[in-house]
């Protein structure tokens, strides 16, 4: 598969995705031993989605978000979510300009290619809702005026799942707007030993240089949209999503938005694998990170400690694979 660059020449898919593989290596120099997690984060970026990084303190959630943002030469803003943060602190505000004798719009940090939201669940629900419009529609409306956000646009949010004091649970409407939720996990002993050697002397993040530009990402996103998805694969995705809606262990299944996000992520995942078509393995590899955070277990399932991830894994095993035509 190749894409027309607008100058009559078509670049092969492998050549286009090379910048993403370079970004993977660059981020791995900061986050050791987490190649799969990093690859999934870049998959979400190419799928025009948003990423929620949820894990215990100290495993590198913010470091991964900052490394991903720094590996791409584009505008990056970081917001430290706190209880006193206001919606206008994110979206922007109309301020009176004394010289012009008129109100002037002051853009907030959301007007960037990558918005890093640290500890997103520490902000109030009112402030969290300020992200709903920009995450779904890629625009911001302030005082009746709509401002469009530049592509690529991605929200990378982090949160701590075990600390409840001073936090506000993310509402389902906002969770549903995150394409995927990932966990980093503890490093292996070898990776942690290497971390002690390198981080004690300098911060690898300071030496991380960008390997791709915003234009590279826009070109890749356009290519990803054209990755072929066979009719049988589409039916397989719908069958898997419908299985979550009819499961007796879940009181809330995946939404139609989740279906779209899963399909987009599969296209991006296939492109990173060097393919211009999606296979069932792509769907199975992405089903848990894309769907699990949107599912709500029943009260009985919670008592029996049946997490949505486990329920979804069993559903994946039960739903028949698509057959070749």
Notes on the protein architecture:
40% of the residues are buried. Helix 11 packs across helix 12 and helix 12 crosses helix 13. The chain starts with a strand and ends in a 7-residue tail after the last helix. With 325 residues, the chain is of the alpha/beta class. Helix content is 45%, strand content 18%. The strands form six sheets. A five-stranded parallel β-sheet has the order 5-8-11-3-12. It has a two-stranded antiparallel ribbon with strand order 1-2. The protein is globular, with a radius of gyration of 20 Å. The N terminus is likely disordered. It has two domains: 224 residues, Rossmann fold; 98 residues, Orthogonal Bundle (Helicase, Ruva Protein, domain 3), CATH 1.10.8.80.
Average pLDDT, to the nearest integer? 88
N- to C-terminal distance = 22 Å
CATH architecture of the largest domain: 3-Layer(aba) Sandwich
- What structural class do helix, strand and pairing data support? alpha/beta
Report strand order across the widest sheet.
5-8-11-3-12
Largest β-sheet summary: 5 strands, parallel
Q: What is the succession of H and E elements?
A: EEHHEHEEHEEEHHEEEHEHHEHHEHHEHH
Q: What fold name stands as the CATH topology of the largest domain?
A: Rossmann fold
Number of helices: 15
Q: How many domains make up the coordinates?
A: 2
Q: What proportion of the residues is helical, as a percent range?
A: 40-55%
The dominant shape is globular
Unreliable segments of 5+ consecutive residues: 3-9
| Beta-strand residue fraction | 15-25%
What's the β-strand tally? 15
């Amino acid at each position: 598969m190749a894409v027309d660059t607008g100058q009559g020449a078509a670049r092969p898919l492998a050549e286009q995705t090379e910048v993403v593989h370079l970004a993977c290596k660059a981020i791995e120099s900061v986050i050791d031993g987490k190649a799969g997690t990093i690859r999934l984060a870049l998959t979400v970026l190419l799928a025009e989605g948003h990423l929620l990084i949820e894990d215990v303190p100290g495993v590198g959630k913010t470091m991964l978000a900052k490394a991903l943002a720094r590996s791409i030469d584009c505008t990056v803003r970081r917001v430290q979510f706190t209880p006193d943060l206001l919606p206008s602190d994110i979206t922007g505000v109309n301020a009176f300009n004394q010289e012009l004798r008129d109100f002037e719009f002051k853009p907030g940090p959301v007007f960037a290619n990558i918005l890093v939201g640290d500890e997103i669940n520490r902000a109030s629900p009112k402030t969290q809702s300020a992200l709903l419009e920009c995450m779904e529609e890629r625009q911001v409306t302030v005082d009746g005026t709509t401002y469009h956000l530049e592509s690529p646009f991605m929200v990378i949010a982090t949160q701590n799942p075990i600390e409840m004091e001073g936090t506000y649970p993310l509402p389902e409407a906002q969770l549903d707007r995150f394409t995927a939720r990932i966990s980093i996990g503890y490093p292996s002993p070898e990776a942690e030993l290497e971390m002690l050697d390198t981080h004690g002397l300098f911060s690898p993040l300071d030496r991380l240089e960008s390997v791709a530009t915003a234009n590279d990402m826009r070109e890749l996103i356009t290519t990803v949209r054209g990755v072929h998805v066979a009719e049988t694969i589409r039916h397989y995705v719908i069958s898997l999503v419908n299985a979550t809606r009819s499961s007796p262990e879940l009181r809330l299944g995946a939404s139609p938005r989740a279906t779209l996000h899963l399909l987009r992520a599969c296209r991006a995942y296939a492109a990173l694998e060097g393919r211009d078509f999606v296979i069932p393995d792509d769907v199975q590899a992405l089903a848990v990170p894309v769907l699990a955070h949107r599912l709500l277990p029943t009260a009985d399932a919670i008592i029996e400690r049946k997490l949505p991830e486990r329920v979804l894994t069993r559903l994946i095993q039960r739903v028949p694979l698509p057959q070749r035509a």
